[in-house]
Structure formats: C-alpha cells, structure tokens
Design brief:
The protein is built from ten helices and nine strands. It is α+β, with helices and mostly antiparallel strands and 257 residues long. The chain has two domains: 3-65, Orthogonal Bundle (Arc Repressor Mutant, subunit A), CATH 1.10.10; 76-252, Trna Endonuclease, Chain: A, domain 1 (3-Layer(aba) Sandwich), CATH 3.40.1350. A seven-stranded mixed β-sheet has the order 3-4-5-6-7-9-8, sandwiched between helices.
Length: 257
C-alpha cells in the first residue's frame, strides 16, 4: 500500500470519526477541527463509497453519521441481521433469535436462500457464540454481558464497497470480527478473507477501537494458532469453536496472572 493511500485512509477515518461523534457538522467545521483544507474534506466526503454508506447530509449541508461512534453503537442495527447487547442475545431462545435474524437480514437485503444450508450455519454460529459467552462468564464474570454483538453485518449498496462480516463482538475498546467456516482445516484464502474488512471496520468504529479479525473453524476442535495473511507480515488468530475464548484472552489478557 502506497504512503499516499495510507494518508488518505487515515484522513477518511478522522473525517468519519468527527461526523459520527457530532450531532451534525458542516465540511468547513470538519476542516477546521482536523486542520485540513476544505477542498480535501469535500473530495473525501463526496468520493468515499464507505462514507456514503454510513453518513448523510441534511438540507443545511450538515453531515450526520448513521452509526454512532459511542457505546452502544446506535444505528448499527440498520446494517445487521441481529444487533444487541450480549445479555439480550444470551437470553433469547434459538427460534426467537432466528426469527430476529431472518427479519433483520430481510431488511438489509441479505439473500436468505437456504439451498446451501444457510439456516444451519446461522444456528451453528449461534451455538458457538453461546459457548463462548459461557466460557467468558466463567473466566471474567458478568462484564462480557454488557458488550455488544452483531450478526451478518452487510454494507453492500456502494459500487466499490462490499463488507460481509459474520459476527462482531464489541467490547469497551475492541471489535472482534469473527469469520465462521464449518470446516476443520485452515484455508489460506479464508485467512485473507477474515482480515480483508479490517480497514473498513476501523473507519466505521473510529480511533477508539482496535479491530481484531479471527477465523473460526467450527468443524475443528482444540485448535488455536496464528496464520499468516497471504504474503503479508501480519497474522490472524485461527481457532475452533471450543477454543474461541483464547482469541479474546490473547487481546484482553484476563487469564494472565
């Protein structure tokens, strides 16, 4: 990635953060706050596909964020099959949760064709997450019940942006982006897939959050390791469902003496 592109990405993140933390703000005010040229701000506002998805402009030329960069992240439900606090998710029966998922996926235009076992994969994903939160409650108490959880994040209307995240778990300062596969072997392409949305999620959630992608293989057991992202230097944690708590401990350190 070129340095120019990196700078553009950082500027885009900063602009999005200012908008999504305000109650409405004009381009001139954004430029002043960030010490940027107004033309630069306008260029990014009108050319960024992602900002067009999560921000809007009113008749007074003020920009607003649909997803607030604050806890809870109001507006996130507009892009997900299911969104809520962990305590709400764990209290739902399977059928009640699945009904919410189907309704939410319909609202965001998610294809619900079940010929490839989509509903089974939804149920499997729910089972793995319930097991995770049982483990986490035993390890760090009720704290995790106040976290947020989102299933089936979809940002797909923009021409150049396609973000399909299976599950997001949002803690106080981290977003775990979990890619689920009903397999028992690591596929390098799926490792790359699990990491590819991180730059976009960094823009959506802002500078107060670290984005942590992970690949979860629900057909495996007792698996936890790190896999290289293609030819890059970065790695992604890969685990089985029964070892998913290790991914959270790796970054939250609740098992460290």
């Amino acid at each position: 990635m070129s340095s120019v592109l990196k700078i553009a990405d950082e500027t885009e993140k900063a602009i999005c953060a200012v908008i999504c933390r305000s109650g409405g703000i004009r381009a001139r005010e954004i430029a002043d706050l960030l010490s940027l040229d107004r033309k630069t701000v306008n260029r990014i506002l009108y050319s960024s596909p992602l900002l067009h998805e999560i921000c809007w402009q009113d008749r007074d030329y003020c920009w607003h964020g649909i997803i607030r960069q604050d806890r809870p992240h109001s507006g996130l439900q507009e892009y997900t099959g299911y969104y809520g606090l962990v305590k709400e998710f764990t209290a739902l029966s399977e059928e009640a949760w699945l009904q919410r998922m189907v309704e939410g996926c319909t609202n965001i235009g998610r294809n619900l064709n079940d010929t490839r076992g989509l509903m089974h994969s939804f149920r499997d994903c729910r089972t793995q997450m319930l097991r995770l939160f049982d483990d986490l409650r035993n390890m760090l108490g009720e704290r995790c019940l106040g976290w947020e959880i989102a299933f089936e994040l979809r940002l797909k209307q923009a021409r150049h942006v396609r973000i399909y995240a299976d599950v997001l778990v949002i803690t106080e300062d981290k977003v775990f982006s979990l890619e689920f596969k009903m397999k028992d072997k690591i596929d390098p392409d799926e490792v790359c897939q699990s990491a590819k949305y991180s730059p976009y999620l960094e823009i959506i959630f802002g500078p107060g959050y670290d984005i942590i992608p992970a690949l979860v293989l629900t057909g495996a057991s007792e698996l936890f390791e790190f896999a290289r992202i293609g030819r890059e230097d970065g790695v992604v944690p890969v685990c089985s469902g029964d070892m998913l708590f290790n991914v959270f401990d790796e970054y939250l350190k609740f098992l460290t003496p």
